[in-house]
Design goal:
Elements lengths: L7 E2 L9 E6 L12 H5 L6 E4 L5 E2 L6 E2 L10 H24 L6 E6 L1 H10 L8 E5 L24 E6 L8 H12 L4 E6 L8 H19 L2
Parallel strand pairs: 2-3, 2-6, 6-7, 7-8, 8-9
Antiparallel strand pairs: 1-3, 4-5
Helix pairs in contact: 2-3
GO molecular function, one term: hydrolase activity
Protein name: Phospholipase
Keywords: Hydrolase
């Protein structure tokens, strides 16, 4: 099983981490593409450590990394991909929590595009819910040919979920947000969502703001469990 590495930021407070935010990049990027988001959220999360692991495979495009191959020729490749890459990400999360001496409720996942697919797939199947999951410009992956009802039997935990998307996304159309929210609701996983007007496949200030507030609220709720 591949061992993941990537850039990190220690807590702004200078104290040992009390939360951990894992940032999962998209297809053809790497951890350096997302680690700067941490600086946007550090004022809200001064006791959080941030890590942005590089995905396990070189990207088939010839640059960057990928969680799994995307040729867009095989309708089953996303489903096979999240299932194949899921154990590697799961093991990374467990190792990071152990290294920091943190519990599952002190973890949050933020994923962009393909990283969003991984964050949603893995978090719903972990034995204990994480504090928050933020999916940016991505989608929930279902088995090809099956409807939203197919998710519920696979769900092991129900974390708070925020989905954010640009309404002009040319890579993953905005319909993916609503289909993902529908599938989550069918599995009794409530999801909030934010739509960024005039934004393509990217992250604008509005999505950053909502995501930061959502992460802070998730950790605050988790402390009360």
């Amino acid at each position: 099983m591949p061992i993941l590495t990537g850039p990190r930021l220690r807590p702004r407070s200078g104290a040992p981490p009390r939360q951990l935010v894992v940032l999962l990049h998209g297809f053809g990027a790497d951890g350096n593409d997302l680690i700067d988001l941490a600086q946007e959220w550090q004022p809200l999360l001064p006791d959080a450590a941030f890590v942005a692991p590089h995905a396990p495979e070189p990207c088939i495009q010839g640059f960057g990394r990928q969680w799994f191959s995307l040729t867009f020729r095989d309708p089953h490749e996303r489903w096979r991909g999240v299932n194949r890459a899921g154990p590697t990400l799961d093991a990374f999360l467990d190792a990071e929590l152990e290294a920091h001496g943190l519990g599952p409720h002190q973890l949050a996942l933020v994923g962009f595009s393909q990283g969003c697919m991984m964050a949603l797939h893995v978090s719903l199947r972990r034995p204990t819910p994480v504090a928050a999951v933020v999916g940016l410009s991505g989608m929930l992956v279902l088995e090809e040919g099956k409807g939203p009802e197919s998710l519920k039997p696979a769900v092991r935990s129900v974390p708070p979920v925020l989905l954010a998307h640009g309404d002009q996304d040319e890579v993953i159309p905005v319909d993916a947000l609503f289909l993902s929210a529908e599938a989550l609701a069918a599995a009794d996983v409530p999801a909030e969502w934010h739509l960024s007007a005039g934004i393509g496949h990217g992250i604008d200030d509005g999505a950053l703001h909502h995501a930061g507030q959502f992460l802070a609220a998730g950790f605050a709720r988790a402390r009360k469990r």
